[in-house]
Amino acid sequence: MNGRLAATAALLLLATLPARAADTLQIAPVKVSDQKAVFATVESVNVVPARARIGGSVAELKVDEGQHVERGQVIAAIGDEKLVLQLRALDAQIAALEAQLAQAQTSLNRAEDLFGRGTIPKARLDEARTASQVASGALKARIADRSVVRQQLGEGDVLAPASGVVLAVPVTTRSVILPGETVAMIAERDYVLRLRVPERHARFLKTGDPVRLDGAEQREGRVRLVYPQIEDGRVVADAEVPGLGDYFVGERVRVWVSGGERTTHVVPAAFLVTRFGIDYARIKRGDGVADVPVQRGGPLPRPDMADGVEILSGLSDGDVLVRP
């Protein structure tokens, strides 16, 4: 009781002191952005599948979920025994055609020698030359076929289409897959926040609006894209926020977005004083001052007021505050 009487006497004494003009602030209404809390998910801009180019069985898997891969990295190997058998058959055919070509070339050389001596007619020489050309063409065709089979064997290596993190590997070793089937899903490291805002706030959300994340670190970003289609009564938007690489893909976080504008009072925190759990603002009254209880809101920093605080009630337009 004695402490309260002393505090009351001190307030009465302060009320008789004149206020300095440099420490005063006149209250005026200001328009501020109305912040709304919504949940967002961390998602990759692009999730691309790494697909098999040939059919066969998975001979080797070189990645697992959560592993980082680089573009062009071999993440799996697919083997097809039929291609190996085709390659062996082509090798045998090429060996036979090489022998035929050598025999045809020998016959051509003999025919040219005999034709030079006048022993055989020119028709025999043309036949030998044609046989040599046919054998050479057949050999080139089989060599080209072997190159195609070797290329198919080389396409058994599944390459990462982009740099990022492996989200899923839906196959296992010895799994049989067809051409075009997915071997792994890769999320690029370019993460964004996928916002889903209630439909009633659709007209307030626009590109470039600030976005603030909840948490120990007050990360801020900007809305980069607002999708023109409403899904399940919600507006979908993407926001760019630096430092999302340490989040999980699909992780839900709470963010604050703009929900329109409203009129309120903002004062510096230095003009408020707290006693016994109640916030007071010192208002100029005539030649003195008086402490008035106010309801403090959240922080609203502004370019001209770094320590701005919203006042929900207790102040009126035109009031002159005095720094305590």
Structural summary, described in words:
The protein is an alpha+beta fold. It has 3 domains: 180 residues, Efflux pump adaptor protein, beta barrel domain (Elongation Factor Tu (Ef-tu), domain 3); 65 residues, RNA polymerase II/Efflux pump adaptor protein, barrel-sandwich hybrid domain (OB fold (Dihydrolipoamide Acetyltransferase, E2P), Beta Barrel), CATH 2.40.50.100; 75 residues, Helix Hairpins, CATH 1.10.287. The protein has 3 helices and 20 strands. The strands form 4 sheets. Strands 2-11-14-13-12-15 form a 6-stranded antiparallel β-barrel. α2 packs antiparallel against α3. The two termini are 24 Å apart.
List keywords for this structure.
six-stranded antiparallel beta barrel; alpha+beta; rod-shaped; four-stranded antiparallel beta sheet; OB fold (Dihydrolipoamide Acetyltransferase, E2P); 324 residues; Elongation Factor Tu (Ef-tu), domain 3; Helix Hairpins
Compact summary:
By secondary structure, the protein is α+β, with helices and mostly antiparallel strands. The protein folds into 3 domains: 1-45 and 190-324, Efflux pump adaptor protein, beta barrel domain (Elongation Factor Tu (Ef-tu), domain 3, Beta Barrel); 46-78 and 158-189, OB fold (Dihydrolipoamide Acetyltransferase, E2P), CATH 2.40.50; 81-155, Helix Hairpins, CATH 1.10.287.
Instruction: Report how far the terminal alpha carbons are from each other.
Output: 24 Å
Q: Quick check: average pLDDT?
A: 82
Output the CATH topology of the largest domain. Answer: Elongation Factor Tu (Ef-tu), domain 3
- Helix count equals 3
Q: Tell me about the biggest sheet?
A: 6 strands, antiparallel, barrel
The structural class is: alpha+beta
In the sheet with the most strands, the strands line up as: 2-11-14-13-12-15
List SSEs in N-to-C order. Answer: HEEEEEEHHEEEEEEEEEEEEEE
- Total of domains: 3
Could you give me the name of the CATH homologous superfamily of the largest domain?
A: Efflux pump adaptor protein, beta barrel domain
Provide the CATH top-level class of the largest domain.
Mainly Beta
Low-confidence stretches: 1-22
What proportion of the residues form beta strands (DSSP E)? Answer: 35-45%
> What's the architecture of the largest domain in CATH terms?
Beta Barrel
